[in-house]
């Protein structure tokens, strides 16, 4: 998921990789639903979309500690 993340590359490229990882996590957290659950999926996607930045920030911070 974070194969392209490196401490030797610029911050902008690393941020792109971190956001990609956050989006992968978001996709997995919403999961797949049938057509009857479309409304529920919409609500969950809206919530996840609001949290992408915070999730990306947390991932980035965790990588800095490592």
From TrEMBL:
Highest taxon in the source lineage: Bacteria
Name the record gives this protein: Uncharacterized protein
């Amino acid at each position: 998921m974070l194969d392209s993340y490196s401490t030797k590359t610029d911050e902008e490229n690393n941020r792109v990789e971190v956001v990609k990882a956050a989006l992968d996590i978001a996709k997995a957290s919403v999961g797949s639903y049938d057509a009857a659950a479309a409304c529920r999926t919409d609500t969950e996607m809206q919530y996840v979309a609001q949290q992408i930045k915070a999730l990306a920030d947390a991932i980035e911070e965790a990588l800095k500690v490592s």
